[in-house]
Design brief:
The chain is of the alpha+beta class. The protein has a single domain (2-98), classed as Conserved Hypothetical Protein Mth637, Chain: A. It has helices at residues 52-65, 92-103; strands spanning 2-5, 8-13, 16-24, 31-36, 39-43, 72-76, 82-88. The protein starts with a strand and ends in a 12-residue tail after the last helix.
Length: 115
């Protein structure tokens, strides 16, 4: 089942929820900056060398969403800036709530309705 939630495209799977992530490596710092064309937009300080940016993405999402890193899996786009990530054990509503909670302290707030 696929659903577009506030501009963020989510796909519910038997194992959890999948989302697209648009990554910009070699940024000044690692952070989520919004939603772009259905994907969570993420800037990573790590370079795209030998999987460093992929590991940094897993670490960032793990901390941001309060999940163990083993439950954040890259399922597509290992060598691309556009990646599909599986968040094991989460439902779309839980993901939306955790993203909203993490964005609550950020100024300006993360706009999940942007596309």
């Amino acid at each position: 089942m696929s659903e577009a939630t506030g501009g963020l495209e989510l796909r519910e799977t038997p194992g959890g929820v999948e989302l697209w992530v648009q990554v910009t490596p070699r940024a000044g710092k690692s952070e989520v900056t919004g939603v772009e064309r259905g994907a969570l937009r993420v800037r990573l300080a790590a370079p795209p060398v030998e999987g460093a940016a992929n590991r940094a993405l897993v670490d960032l999402l793990s901390k941001l969403l309060g999940l163990p890193a083993r439950r954040v899996r890259l399922v597509a786009g290992e060598r691309s800036r556009r990646k599909r990530v599986l968040l094991e054990g989460l439902q779309p509503s839980e993901l939306r709530a955790r993203l909203a909670a993490s964005a609550a302290g950020v100024a300006p707030p993360l706009d999940l309705n942007a596309s």
